[in-house]
Amino acid sequence: MRRQPVPTRRRFLGLAAGAIGALPAAISVRPAEATPEMMATAIRAVTGGAPVQTGKVKLDIPPLVENGNSVPMTVSVTSAMTANDYVKSIHVFNEKNPQPNLGNFYLKPNAGRAQVSTRVRLADSQKITAIAKLSDGSFWSTTADVVVTLAACTEDVI
């Protein structure tokens, strides 16, 4: 009668390394890149095709960033933030990240002011668009171009 080898961590890791080594080395996965058309589709999904006016929204993001891994961004909207006149949501879109929607922020009148601040990753130099939906159903927007010297979101995964 043949004895079964005792399972050890070393044997398991050896088998796992052998199995991984058997996979073709040519497999490389790269993140998909959003396009301006994908961004336009994402914007239509948020607005429902309603007209978007320019104004009322301010996008504060550096025009030139050295590193796209952590880019500070603030979006503010001119609004009284009262029960009858307030910003319902703020949406931020981009052209070249793997996903065209950078973020969605939902507000209520008791927020006090219509402003959100965060940090984002940018895959490359691109256009950023911020859209605000007001309580009257109107949409307002602004855009900013950002030049990124060291891109994020583009590492090769093997």
Q: What does this entry look like structurally?
A:
The chain has helices at residues 9-21, 36-47; strands at residues 52-54, 57-60, 64-67, 71-77, 87-94, 101-106, 115-120, 126-134, 139-150. It has 158 residues and is of the alpha+beta class. It has a single domain (36-150), classed as Immunoglobulin-like (Sandwich). A hairpin with a 6-residue loop joins strand 5 (87-94) and strand 6 (101-106). The longest helix has 13 residues, at 9-21. It is elongated and about 85 Å long. It starts with 8 loop residues before the first helix and ends in an 8-residue tail after the last strand. Mean pLDDT is 85; it is low at 25-31.
List the helices and strands and how they pair.
Elements: H1 9-21, H2 36-47, E1 52-54, E2 57-60, E3 64-67, E4 71-77, E5 87-94, E6 101-106, E7 115-120, E8 126-134, E9 139-150
Parallel strand pairs: 1-9, 3-9
Antiparallel strand pairs: 2-4, 4-7, 5-6, 5-8, 8-9
Strand content: 35-45%
Major beta-sheet overview: 6 strands, mixed
Number of strands: 9
CATH C-level label: Mainly Beta
Count of individual helical segments:
2
Q: Low-confidence parts, pLDDT < 50 over ≥5 residues? A: 25-31
What Rg is obtained from the alpha carbons, in whole angstroms?
Answer: 23 Å
The end-to-end distance, rounded to whole angstroms, is 43 Å
Shape: elongated
CATH architecture: Sandwich
